[in-house]
């Protein structure tokens, strides 16, 4: 299969003290294996070494090694508004919502109201692997995966050891600290982890645009997780997880503060016997706040005080034993979410002028069946999914300063059934070459944010649209995977994806935009990856070239043929790593992102940029390692926002030094 790094799952094995003929109890801490059909799709797997040796130590940096992965903006989670952290693949972007489904141990992690991913809470040190599957999703929680699925797998004691800790400081005095303990308890284990990042940040505003109110991109974030895994029987296990996090940032101006926080818990039962099963339940509570500061008066103009959201969901999947040639999945999943915002606008004198609330509820109930059929060197896969969705209880209410109702709207409830399918084939033509093809459809509901929350990024106001329709994807792809000799792998995929009724921020005037469904976004392109392992030298490379265009007519005809906002035509990433001795690692990562446009009318451009990162890990004494990291070594100018010449910049040259402790 096309993979950046192949990595076996960590296991905790039972003690050998029992009778020799006793069946061993094996606790994996993972879900069920995905079966033989995954290679029919365009998949890249990021292994443990790549996860823990990035220059920034952040998950978005890790994911950027997969060409075609993008956030709405180029800035990472230290210097961007959290609501901009939507992630997507295959140039199907255009707004800040996620068009890729992101799962942590099977649990969707996107904010239920905005659709953004809490990237600062997803510490790479806690993971054993990340698998990126491009294209329309199926299986559990497939709704929302119109550009692909990013599955993150937590690490266990075989990977982490008894205790790991890391403390680093950079040239601006910013710090990163983390501690993870993974003791075995009987035949199970516990993993407890805490991470804390803080700093005054860098100047995101160019020197010639700074004013006395300009602020550095200060940030402080922490997250804590606890995960316990224990056997129930010889073939079944229970997994319980919790995650708590808080993130505070300041962007552009003093007082322009944002917060993102959340708590989630999940309980999962996995059976590896003849009748395999995977049953999962979770609950998530998240919040977001944001203060908007005027770019002319430099005073607070809007206080988005809070956006509490709640999501409850789960899945149940069973795999009947119908023969070695088949892997049959029968399952259902559910997600219920609700959220509302509370915000207060202010005038130039600093007085509140109104009090606003908006929000609603969504639900999705899915049923799916999928089968992988192995016929010698040929693997066929096919599946269907039916979803019952609702959008309900939507409202917008505004009071003036005196408490009189200015506007009060209750939006009509909506619901529907949607059917989607995918199918694929993989043929191992020779020992070194396999070919594959796949076709799929997909669905994404508009977020509560897109439906009900207007926002302002001065001088642009973007209106919400409670009438937005769900997005629907149709896609095709074909590829080949070539392994001419051990240690050398090549993968190439051509694809054609059409996203109908794509939600975009459509320009109505120089200072006004509205979220609207455009007719479609069509993305055609090529994705390639290569891996070379020669002794102690490793090379991983990924390339994406995409021709993406908006298809529009009527009042949106001016968008027809234009490239979606914030989507580069090409992206590439390459990492070369050398391990001269055990526990040593020296690596360099070169990334290139092509030019992209700030807006839907292609009036403001974000230039192409190439960055170089370096990493060094050098053992000092037993259990202690010196860590040196350098981000953007050449100090390339990264333009993350260009609003008619008002510019924000991304991470400048940043050098880190610290110590990592690893006790086995």
Descriptive key words:
664 residues, mainly beta, Maltoporin, Chain A, five-stranded mixed sheet, 40 strands, globular
Structural commentary:
This protein has a single domain (12-663), classed as TonB-dependent receptor, beta-barrel domain (Maltoporin, Chain A, Beta Barrel). It is 3% helix and 58% strand. The chain contains 4 helices and 40 strands. The strands form 6 sheets. It has a 27-stranded mixed sheet that branches. Strand 29 and strand 30 form a beta hairpin.
> How helical, in percent, are the residues?
under 10%
Instruction: Give the class-level CATH name.
Output: Mainly Beta
Cα gyration radius (Å): 24 Å
Per CATH, what is the topology?
Answer: Maltoporin, Chain A
What is the fourth-level CATH superfamily?
A: TonB-dependent receptor, beta-barrel domain
CATH architecture verdict: Beta Barrel
Mind describing the biggest β-sheet? Answer: 27 strands, mixed
SS strand fraction:
over 45%
């Amino acid at each position: 299969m096309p993979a950046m790094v192949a990595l076996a799952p960590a296991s905790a094995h039972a003690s050998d003290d029992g009778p020799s003929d006793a069946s061993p109890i094996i606790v994996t801490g993972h879900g069920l294996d995905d079966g033989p059909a995954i290679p029919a799709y365009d998949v890249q797997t990021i292994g443990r070494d790549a996860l823990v040796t990035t220059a920034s130590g952040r998950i978005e940096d890790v994911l950027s090694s997969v060409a075609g992965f993008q956030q709405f903006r180029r800035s990472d989670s230290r210097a961007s508004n959290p609501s901009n952290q939507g992630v997507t693949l295959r140039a199907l972007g255009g707004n800040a919502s996620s068009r890729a489904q992101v799962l942590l141990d099977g649990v969707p992690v996107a904010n239920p109201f905005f659709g953004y991913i809490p990237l600062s809470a997803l510490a790479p040190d806690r993971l054993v692997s990340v698998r990126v599957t491009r294209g329309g999703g199926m299986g559990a929680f497939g709704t929302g995966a119109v550009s692909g699925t990013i599955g993150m797998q937590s690490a266990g004691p075989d990977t982490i050891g008894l205790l790991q800790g890391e403390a680093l400081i950079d040239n601006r005095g910013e710090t990163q600290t983390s501690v993870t303990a993974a003791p075995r308890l009987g035949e199970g284990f516990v993993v407890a982890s805490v991470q804390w990042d803080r700093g005054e940040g860098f100047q995101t505003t160019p020197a010639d645009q700074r004013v006395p109110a300009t602020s550095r991109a200060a940030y402080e974030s922490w997250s804590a997780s606890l995960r316990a895994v224990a056997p129930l029987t010889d073939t079944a296990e229970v997994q319980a997880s919790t995650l708590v996090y808080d993130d505070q940032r300041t962007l552009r101006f003093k007082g322009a503060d944002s917060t993102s926080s959340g708590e989630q818990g999940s309980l999962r039962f996995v059976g590896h016997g003849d009748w395999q099963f995977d049953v999962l339940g979770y609950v998530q509570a998240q919040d977001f706040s944001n203060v908007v500061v005027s770019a002319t008066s430099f005073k607070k103009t809007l206080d988005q005080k809070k956006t509490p959201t709640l999501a409850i969901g789960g899945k149940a999947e069973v795999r009947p034993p119908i023969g070695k040639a088949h892997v049959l999945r029968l399952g259902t999943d559910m997600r219920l979410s609700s959220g509302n915002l509370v915000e207060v606008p202010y005038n130039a004198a600093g007085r509140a002028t109104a009090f606003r609330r908006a929000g609603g509820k969504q639900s999705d109930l899915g049923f799916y069946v999928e089968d992988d059929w192995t016929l010698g060197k040929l693997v066929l896969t096919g599946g269907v999914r039916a979803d019952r969705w609702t959008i309900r209880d939507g409202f917008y209410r505004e009071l003036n300063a005196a408490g009189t109702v200015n506007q009060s709207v209750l939006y009509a409830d909506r619901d529907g059934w949607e059917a989607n399918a995918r199918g694929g084939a993989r043929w191992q033509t020779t020992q070194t070459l396999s070919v594959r093809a796949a076709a799929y459809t997909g669905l994404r509901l508009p977020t509560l944010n897109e439906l009900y929350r207007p926002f302002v990024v001065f001088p642009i106001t973007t209106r919400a649209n409670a009438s937005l329709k769900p997005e629907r994807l149709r896609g095709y792809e074909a590829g080949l995977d070539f392994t001419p000799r051990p240690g050398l792998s090549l993968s190439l995929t051509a694809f054609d994806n059409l996203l109908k009724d794509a939600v975009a921020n459509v320009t109505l005037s120089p200072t006004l935009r509205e979220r609207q469904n455009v007719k479609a976004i069509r993305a055609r392109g090529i994705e390639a990856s290569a891996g070379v392992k020669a002794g102690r030298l490793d090379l991983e490379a990924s390339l994406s070239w995409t021709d993406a265009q908006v298809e529009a007519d009527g009042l949106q005809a001016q968008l027809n043929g234009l490239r979606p906002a914030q989507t580069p035509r090409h992206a590439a990433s390459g990492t070369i790593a050398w391990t001269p001795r055990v526990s040593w690692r020296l690596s360099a990562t070169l990334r290139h992102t092509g030019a992209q446009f700030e807006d839907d009318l292609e009036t403001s451009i974000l230039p192409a940029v190439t960055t170089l990162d370096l990493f060094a890990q050098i053992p000092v004494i037993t259990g202690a390692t010196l860590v040196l990291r350098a981000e953007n070594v050449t100090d390339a100018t990264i333009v993350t926002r260009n609003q008619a010449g008002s510019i924000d910049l991304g991470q400048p040259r940043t050098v880190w030094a610290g110590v990592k402790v690893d006790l086995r």
